[in-house]
Amino acid sequence: AQKITQTQPGMFVQEKEAVTLDCTYDTSDQSYGLFWYKQPSSGEMIFLIYQGSYDEQNATEGRYSLNFQKARKSANLVISASQLGDSAMYFCAMRRNTGFQKLVFGTGTRLLVSP
Amino acid sequence: DADVTQTPRNRITKTGKRIMLECSQTKGHDRMYWYRQDPGLGLRLIYYSFDVKDINKGEISDGYSVSRQAQAKFSLSLESAIPNQTALYFCATSDQGEKLFFGSGTQLSVL
Q: Which residue in B45, B58, B99 is closest to A35 by CB distance?
């Protein structure tokens, strides 16, 4: 069965600094996808970044990058140059690419960016 | 207009009442999902549908039912609401192999 673990309930970072949000996953599948979503206080779920299990390079999207270490089964999100608007809940999720492709979510990390 | 629209945005109801949450989408996706979010538990899948004739239970379907009225519409019903169904409910859609697009959520409180 798939499982996502986010061990950091909360993280603090100062504006303009970089922060890493941890995510480890457990799966016996060879083909899968990893996602990060942001949930601001308004409640909506915003897609940030995607990494495929066969992608050789780490995914990047603007200030977001995904530090993918397949052997360690980790998919950490790195936010560079944090901004006040980055304060939110962040969820890591995984989807298998065979069979039923449901998205399984971690419990989330709350990030607070201070001035 | 939003691609995935959920109604209502907020709902307060009493134990034992039947309630329906509605979701419509303009993205043209075949796949639709209902998730619930509880503090500390992340999002958990209630039901999913790959097309109008295909509906499947997710990991926490007890106490819920769904109806896929059309490709664009997927509704979630609580036949007899109970307090532990108080949660934030999300509808989502996807194309095969693609990321999920979420609605804005429905905050449901069962008193």
A: B99
